[in-house]
Amino acid sequence: MNTLRILRDLLRYNGEFAIGLVLVLIVAAIALCSFFSPYPPMDVYVVPPDIPPSWEHPLGTTSRGQDVFWQLTFAIRNTLLFGIVVAFLSRIISLAVGLISGYKGGWVDRILMSINDTFVVVPLFPILVLFYFIMRDEMTWAMLAIITALLGWAYDARLIRSIAMSLRTREFTRQAVFSGMSTGKIVLQEHLPFVLPIVFSTTMNNINWSIGIEVTLSVLGFTDINTPTIGGMIYWANQHTALVSGIWWWVTFPVLLVIMLFIGLFLLAISMNEYIDPRSRLSRLGGQA
Amino acid sequence: MKAYLAYLSKRLVQFAVVVFVGINITYLVTHMTPINPVEQSISAATSYGATSPEAIEMMRQSLRQLYGLEGSPWEQYVNFWKRVLVGDFGPSLSAFPTPVSQLILRALPWTVGLLLVSTLLTWFLGNLLGGLAGYYRNSRILRAFGVLSMGLHPIPYYVVAFVFLIIFGFLWPVLPISGGATMASDRSNTLAFALDIVVHSILPVLSLMAVGIGGWFMGMRSLVSNIVTEDYVVYAELAGVKRGKIMRSYVMRNALGPQVTGLALQLGAIFNGAIITEQVFGYPGVGSLLISAVHSGDYSLVLGITTISIVAVSAAVLLIDLLYPLIDPRVEAR
Question: What ipTM is given for this predicted complex?
């Protein structure tokens, strides 16, 4: 009930949230269409190739004889799922590191944070390329998701840590310690609820980040190209030099769809951030900040 | 001075940790594989033509050491580090027998130049405009710029670079879309050559700026809009200090600290972006080298670029950290 009210408030007073939600819902709806696709995703030459957008094929067909629209539904579904899986896994790591580091302080904090800062600073792309180079055909979709999650938690762990640090000095934490609660219990039951709002907004950013990685790697052909993804579609279009031969619809629609998703998720993230910060929420509602 | 030394040593330790962890990751990655990478690389590299047996033996030797397959596990680990520390990654397999380090050194100036120009321009412009937007809140132009840069911000480098390529390569071909300079250009005429390089770098730099500027803009705008409500700014305004001076010395200066830290934290991501931009625009830097190395199965080159980029990025971060006290004197005083 409370969540519904927050949602209503956000929709009413925050235009960015509304636009973001609409964009993400459209993308999600397209992804859901994949379950009704008349063609299996990996089959080629099921339709005549190189047909421009028409009534029969609303977004045209590819040089590999696939319908762009139905291909796109599978691609965006896998890409979206990739982002969600990576975000979920990396949230677990960043919550664990951030909460423990912030609550414990001292040398635990120092060690965890210097590892954390390493992951923030190190250029991840060459490392991912090295992974692909070594794994080659073993680099499946799931494997890439796990590796990306292992590399992409650090920035948010620092954010969570800073909140946990301020929670540590609050009365209720002291009371919990005196009443004999264990560290794990304090962190999970007392502190976790406070960081959840910020976790939601970082999730959106993390999905964006991981999808960006996935698109980039697969456009270069550095992933499992047999799972249809947005990057994979662009990869195949580039392989068939779609732009030079004028098959613009093969490239344009995946790019537009993924841009829609990026902007949608980004708007959701910043509007949630604003909502969490009470000062900006008040000024939006017309009060004095 | 003592505080600065403490700060310095802390930064140096962090630098060492970053390099240590980063290189250990590359070591672990190369040792996780179930495939025998040495024989795979050699068969890939020699499949193009006959190579003398001695050359193959030399390759195998340096590959086995690089992969760390020689001796006990501890020796393997030490050997790997020795090679990394002196920057000797053996001969490149795809451009045999040119040493990997030479190939990287040839490509590095292009990448460093591209990165330096685009990063500094992006950071400077983003912060300047963001600061102005935070101070002059009602300016329509700055608001429009904010919406535009925020819209571009979440889109990954690759997609933006690709869209730039489509626009300037196919729809409105006014700029060179590929290469670092014209192929058969006359390099004796230094001025014309420099101009040629600049013209070729416009699209890569623009695409990097288009994506990067939004983050700095938004960060600076929110920092400044918090600072302008501080009492000392209100006081300065009431005391009749000129607005330009308030902006420069009271507001911007205080907001700059977090943005410099942000620059240090973002460097890794900026470097990733540059790799991709190079690939899209065929720029002859480290990124293009890395990608062609992967395609030709050149293990020593891939490993060399990975390790060198880890060291280079962390060194750049260290440099920013060391300069930080110039912007925020409190570090030194503490």
Answer: 0.79
Contact between B33 and A134 using a beta-carbon 8 Å cutoff: yes
- Reading phi first (left if > 0) and then psi (alpha if -120 to 50, else beta), residue A106 is in left
Reading the block at residue A185, the tokens are 């219990």
CB contact under 8 A, A123 and B313: yes
pLDDT above 90: percentage of residues in chain A = 10
How large is the angle between the packed helices A141-151 and A68-104, nearest 10 degrees?
Answer: 30
Residue B224, pLDDT score: 87
To which H or E segment does residue B114 belong?
helix B100-135
CA distances B43 to B56, B297, B298, Å, are 10, 10, 11
The model carries a pTM of 0.82
Under a CB-based contact definition with an 8 Å cutoff, are residues A249 and A60 in contact?
yes
Token pair of B292 as six digits: 């062609």
HSE, side-chain direction, 13 A CA sphere, residue A245:
14
Nearest to A14 by CA among A277, A272, A239: A272
Contacts of A243 in chain B (CB under 8 A): 166, 170
Give A-chain residues touching B156 at CB under 8 angstroms.
Answer: 211-213, 215-216, 262
Q: Is A40 left (phi over 0), alpha (psi -120 to 50) or beta?
A: beta
3 state DSSP class of B91? strand
Phi, psi at A29, each rounded to 5°: -65, -40
Alpha carbon of B133 to those of A219, B61, B317: distances in Å? 36, 59, 28
Terminal-residue alpha carbon distance, chain A: 27
| Structure tokens, B268 | 């890794």
Judge residue A29's burial from the number of C-beta atoms within 10 Å of its C-beta, 0-12 exposed, 13-18 middle, 19 or more buried: exposed
Q: Do B156 and A215 touch (CB under 8 A)?
A: yes
